[in-house]
Amino acid sequence: MTERIVNIINFIRGIDERGDYDLVTPVVKEAELIRRFGFPATWLLQYDALVTGPYMDCLKRHHAPNIEYGIWLEMDRYLVEAAGLQWKGRLTWDYHANCAFSLGYTREERRRLCDEFVAAFARVFGHPPKVMGSWCFDAFTLQYLHERHGVIGACICKDQQGTDGYTLRGGYFANAYYPSVRNAYMPAQTTTKQIPVPVFRMLGSDPLHQYDCEQEDGFQLVTSLEPVYKHAGGNPKWVDWFLKETFTRPALAMAYAQMGQENSFSADQIFPALEMQFEKVKTLRDKNLLKIETLGESASAFRSCHHLTPPTAVTTLSDWRTPESAGVWYLCRNYRLNLFQTPEGRLSVRSWNLFDENFPERNESEPLRGPSCVLETLPLWDSFAWQGAFFGIHDSHGSISAVEEVGAEELSVRWQSSKDSCTWLMSPDGIRVTFDSDGSCLTMELTDVMDAEVILLSAKEIRLKYRGWTYRIVLSAGELGHRGDTVVFQPEQNLLEFHAETAM
Question: Which of 313, 352, 440, 504 is the most buried (most CB within 10 A)?
Fold first, then answer.
């Protein structure tokens, strides 16, 4: 049975010196709106909002039994100096990754920052926080917050390329996962090497268009449920489409979205779009198509139901744009794969990443020194980073005609065309493609693959190397051939079976 969940998560900064921001009015209006609808909600407070300003008085005035509080783990001068450390930011709060995030501090400094934050939270609320969030964080910090301070749930930014200097690529695209003890962005494969804290993906990322959304000055633009984006979360047509595709399509264990907005935007930017979203999600809740929970409630339920990261899916069979596309994200503890129907009607694998719990973060042992950060998994195929490269059915034109759940862990995707109709079955063990007729194949163009080096290509294996890590694509049915720089996945009796793994 699919759990269909919305979390309303707003986070509060006490200070933002990038402009003449009114940080208080958005909090007041969000609190009033939540109280009027009676929704469960989670407030995450940055340290400066916890210990300065009128924010706590506002939250106390609008408190209700279904309201939860936690920590937003971005560093500021107040927290760093209270922990006995030297602040290295340009202003009281600095969004540069080496200042704002745990990645920019040594392990001992991370412990001290967490201890001080939790102690201050407990002084205000009478108990330690159960949930935390941040755009980026590391595995050591999350595990420490869990083991030392009892945190049970977390949330992290959506996938993006370079936005605000933060790159998160190749992760568990939506919903929630248990991270590895070596990499907070990497789902673990075993209970012995996972942090038992589910991490939920924030912001309601557009499942068709955010992945390869265009860039300006190296920063990827945003198409998400955030109400300040007028083309997306502020657009009633887009919101209707997003909620329909997220909560009425096949999703396996979970369909999830986070609503809410940080207070570093004006109240006029946030409202009335957030109110519009609340009206729509209330209608769906009243029809029992989803439930609204706090982050802590969702984390507790996840921990009760799943001892490992379960397979989930994001199925999108219509498009809010023209010309139309469609797509399916299959997510499990071993890999993620995105099948995409291009506007021209070709079937492509846009994104395919291997999850390996032993693959470390870039800043596992040494703190981040610069203003930008990268969180990542192992790229098997990345059509956004490898611009111009194509992997899929090259000359066939058709559509994704059906998506079905097969038991609790497998997803079947039917591709219908006049030439190369086939069925893809994705499971935690790998991918199985069954073609209807002879002569069909998959092609993979390697000419523009830049990040992951191909170090071996044989009839049954493509071996890759990335950041010193060696891994491979292995065929158990079918063979690999060549057409110049193009690799051909040639079926055996109309069948392809392949999976990815770390090379020994």
Answer: 313
